[in-house]
Task: structure prediction
Amino acid sequence: MKAQALSSDRKEARENQTPSSGLFFKVKKVLYEKRSKFQKIEIIQNDFYGRVLFLDGLVQTTERDEFFYHEMLVEPALCSHPAPENVLVIGGGDGGALRHVLQHPVKKAWLVEIDEEVIKACEQYFPWLEASLSDPRAELAIADGFDFIQNTRDKFDVILVDSSDPVGPSAILHQRDFYFKLKKILKPGGIIAAQSGSQILHLKEHADKARFLKKMFKVSRFYSGPVPTYPVGTWCYNFLSDRIDPLKVKELRIPAGLKYYNEEIHRAAFALPVFFRQAIGLS
Ligand code: SAM
Result:
C-alpha cells in the first residue's frame, strides 16, 4: 500500500511515499536486477540498511530493519495460539516471516509465493531464506495465493498474509473475497494476521477493510508497529479470529532471541490512536 516509486538508478534508489516526500538510499552496489513475469526485482547494498529488496521500486525488506516488520507480522498470532501446528504464509518470498514461524514448535509451515524469481534472488542475498527452506517442516509452493487457498485441502492454525501493496499480483490479497475464502481454510480457533499498510497514509483502505472484516470475524483488531523503511514509519496489521482475542491471552508463547516483540509490546501494539479509531469507525 505504498505510493509509486519515483526512480531507482545506480547512485541512489528512491521511493516516493507521498507526492512530495519519500525515502532515499545511497546505492553502494546493485547486487541484483531482474524483471520477472510479475515485477521488477532489485537488491542493492546500502551502508546503513545493508541489503535492501525492492519490488517495482518499493522497499520490501532490509537487512537492518526487517525484524520490526517480520516479528510484528508473525509473533502476535503465533504467540497467542495455544498450539500452532500447521501454518500458511501467503506472499513473503523474502523468507523473513517463514524464519520466524519456524522458531515456534510448528509441524508444517507453507510458504506460497507467486514469483519464483523473488525466491531465487532472496535465496542468494538473504541467507535466512535458504536456511528456512531447508528446514524439513517448510514447504514452498510457487503459486498465486488466491489459487492456493481455493485448491488446498489443508486447514491451518495460523495464516499470515505477507503481501505487497494492493497493486499488481497482490491486489487480490487485500480484497473481501480473499478473506472470505481464507476463513474457510482456517481451523476452529485459528488466527489470521495480515499486513495492511501504513497507519497514516492508508486510512481509507483501513476503513474499507475494517467494514468487511468485522462482519466476518468475531475478533477483528488492528495493531501497529514501527518499520523505519515503510511509508511513513508506522505499519498496520490485522489480527482476525473467531475465538482468540489477543488482549485476553493469558500466556504468550514467546520464542527466545527476538529483537522487538515482547509481552509489553504485544499489549501496546493494539492501542490505536484517535485519528485511526475515527477513520475505522471506532468511538
Ligand atoms: N510486506 C512487505 C511489504 O509490504 O513491503 C512485502 C513482503 S513480501 C516480499 C511480498 C511478496 O508477495 C512478494 O514477494 C510478491 O511476489 C508476493 N505476492 C504478491 N502477490 C502474490 C499473490 N497473489 N500470491 C502469492 N504471493 C504474492
